[in-house]
Design a protein that fits this description.
CATH architecture of the largest domain: 4-Layer Sandwich
Number of helices: 19
Helix content: 25-40%
Radius of gyration: 26 Å
Shape: globular
Structural class: alpha/beta
Strand content: 15-25%
Bound molecules: 5-amino-5-deoxy-1-O-phosphono-D-mannitol
Number of domains: 3
CATH class of the largest domain: Alpha Beta
Distance between the termini: 12 Å
Strand order of the largest sheet: 3-2-4-1-10-9-11-15
Number of strands: 27
CATH superfamily of the largest domain: Aminohydrolase, N-terminal nucleophile (Ntn) domain
CATH topology of the largest domain: Glutamine Phosphoribosylpyrophosphate, subunit 1, domain 1
Length: 612
């Protein structure tokens, strides 16, 4: 989704800004732009398409100067074209301010009407442009940009991460945050501003995260943060934990492929230091709840979006099975506005890879507002969700760059297995059964390596699937969410329509879709309901539907029923989802590769969805 990078220092700003924007490309965007100050002159360049197109336009018409702001836009108001790209300019002549903005201004139409009535001429269809004009009006003939921005903020309804420059204020960037992240990077005689620490990590590890309602002014040698109501504040300086090596492609063709292949390590890292063999349980450092408090819990609510929601659904089956606790899984975008009854023995978890998803953050805040202890299962350290939760569990999965989430799903499922075990051992789960789960988890990384070694077989199935226009994904019990996740992966990167269903639901409607052109992918490792699944596969075959089956290695009966059989090692049922999802990820990856799709940057999608 949209990205912001600002720089003020002694180096030429253009290359710093372009390099920062490139590091944000993985988030998904459709246009890019910069505004660079050269003393009291301001140059604005913006282009629809990739950062490369912007770079080429800067090659033809350079913008010189050592202070500037830049942006990658993911269209919300108005299509992706040069005009709607940020920065947006307000004021007379070439403009007295330039603004880049992440988020959505909900009252933009009313503000625009007022500005137009006062004679302001708009150049774009965006909601952002009103901010530029409002600041230009407040700045007037003066030169106090910091004050002008602060006077405008109360007029804006919605969410924003803002960066603003003005030729009246050489060397100065003003930023503001409400509901959309911003971080200040502290360098030697240079300061940076970004929506994601990844953009500025090569410059400095010292950062200050802005909180909601804070406004910052940066110059090369100084920075000041004010709270909109409480005035000047002393910022907390953090260090970012970002290894550039972890975000390099190595010899993989795409980040998605790299991240799929990292999963043995991902699961090992998620479990590292958390397994307690001697007690047949798992332990966590950051839950901030005592065993007594956890034993009082009578119900768990898991809230998330997308792939994190699918992981949460696996968590529901696991917690119910191991801890015998009722669990509900909620879409964050629904939960935050519903009047979901929660009592004082309900424990709420939000799950988010990025820790910045607007809907999930909204759900976290709503739950906290209602006085519930709200914990987070999150990957990005220092993200807004991680900071605002009452406690939680980090995934330790490292940076996930591919828009299609893969290793974060595995880390979330591993952590939820640990959580189910922990809650179970505080209740009725015996030491022996707990130890069996611990031992099964310990074996998963090696088993994952064996699944990854079957990639050639998966490519054969992908060749067949790449011809399809529509695909069914089916699974029972713990594998129903895995089927949903397989379908999501296929649709988001290959643009082939795919539906996930509980296997038993097939005959209640979707069976009507089955014909020789519509393959079904069954997630069917051996388990308690295996024979029922075999009957369901027969029903599809009887209607000439092609079958791809993920099953337990050596399951001859299943292999005989399937056109393509994708084996996974024989493991304890509760850890099967960690293995079964991998062939589905690889299947989607290779279908998209065969079709020539842009795998790491699928159309219309963003890595981190920071608007509602
Ligand atoms: O960062 P989050 O886990 O909160 O993101 C939630 C979804 O936006 C995300 O999982 C999305 O569905 C992915 N594109 C799935 O691959």
């Amino acid at each position: 989704m949209c990205g912001i990078v600002g720089y003020t220092g002694s180096d030429p700003a253009g290359p710093v800004l372009l390099a920062g924007l490139r590091r944000l490309e993985y988030r998904g965007y459709d246009s890019a732009g910069v505004a660079i100050l050269d003393g009291s002159r301001m140059a604005v360049r913006k282009k629809a398409g990739r950062v490369k197109a912007l770079e080429e336009s800067l090659g033809e018409l350079p913008a010189i100067g050592s202070c500037g702001i830049s942006h990658t836009r993911w269209a919300t108001h108005g299509p992706a074209n040069d005009r709607n790209a940020h920065p947006h300019v307000g004021g007379t002549g070439e403009g007295t301010v330039a603004v880049v903005h992440n988020g959505v201004i909900e009252n933009h139409a009313a503000l625009r009407q007022d500005l137009e009535a006062a004679g302001v001429v708009f150049r774009s269809q965006t909601d952002t442009e009103v901010i530029a004009h409002l600041i230009a009006v407040e700045l007037g003939d003066g030169d106090d940009l910091y004050e002008a921005v602060q006077r405008v903020l109360p007029k804006l309804e919605g969410t924003y991460g803002l960066a603003v420059v003005s030729p009246r204020c050489p060397g100065q960037i003003v930023g503001a945050r409400l509901g959309s992240p911003l971080v200040v990077g502290l360098g030697d005689n240079e300061h940076l501003l970004a929506s994601d620490p990844a953009a500025i990590a090569p410059h400095t590890a010292r950062v200050a995260y802005l909180q909601d309602d804070e406004v910052v002014r940066l110059t090369p040698t100084d920075f000041e943060i004010r709270h909109r109501e409480r005035g000047s504040i002393t910022p907390r300086i953090d260090r970012i934990d970002w290894s550039p090596v972890a975000s390099e492609l190595g010899n993989h063709a795409h980040y998605m492929q790299k991240e799929i292949h990292e999963q043995p390590e991902t699961v090992r890292d998620a479990c590292r230091g958390r397994l307690r063999r001697g007690e047949g349980t798992a332990a966590f450092g950051g839950l901030n709840m005592t065993p007594r408090q956890l034993r009082r819990v009578r119900r768990v609510v898991l809230v998330a979006c997308g792939t994190s929601w699918h992981a949460a659904l696996v968590g529901e089956y696991l917690i119910e099975r191991l801890a015998n606790l009722p669990v509900e899984v909620e879409y964050a975008g629904e939960f935050r506005y519903r009047n979901a009854p929660l009592d004082d023995r309900t424990l709420v978890f939000v799950l988010s890879q990025s820790g910045e998803t607007a809907d999930t953050l909204g759900a976290l805040r709503e739950s906290k507002r209602r006085g519930h202890p709200t914990l987070a299962i999150c990957n990005v350290v220092g993200s807004t969700i991680a900071r605002e939760a009452d406690g939680g569990i980090y995934l330790h999965a490292g940076p996930e760059v591919g828009v299609a989430s893969t290793k974060a799903f595995s880390a979330q499922v591993a952590v939820l297995t640990l959580l189910a075990l922990h809650l179970g051992r505080l209740r009725q789960l015996s030491f022996t059964d707990g130890l069996a789960v611990v031992e099964a988890l310990e074996k998963v990384p090696e088993a994952l390596t064996r699944v990854l070694a079957t990639e050639l077989k998966i490519i054969e199935a992908a060749e067949r699937l790449s011809q399809a226009r529509s695909v069914m994904y089916l699974g029972r019990d713990l594998h129903f969410p895995v089927a949903l996740e397989g379908a999501l992966k296929l649709k988001e990167i290959s643009y082939i329509h795919a539906e996930g269903y509980p296997t038993a639901e097939m005959k209640h409607g979707p069976l009507a879709l089955i014909d020789p052109e519509t393959p079904s992918v069954f997630v069917a490792p051996r388990g308690s309901l295996h024979s029922k699944t075999l009957s369901n596969i027969e029903e599809v075959r009887a209607r000439m539907g092609p079958v791809i089956a993920v099953g337990t290695d050596g399951d001859e009966e299943l292999a005989a029923l399937a056109d393509f059989f994708l084996p996974i090692p024989d493991v304890l049922e509760v850890v099967q989802p960690l293995l079964a999802v991998v062939p589905l990820q690889l299947l989607a990856y290779h279908v998209a590769r065969i079709k020539g799709c842009d795998i790491d940057k699928p159309r219309n999608l963003a890595k981190s969805v920071t608007v509602e």
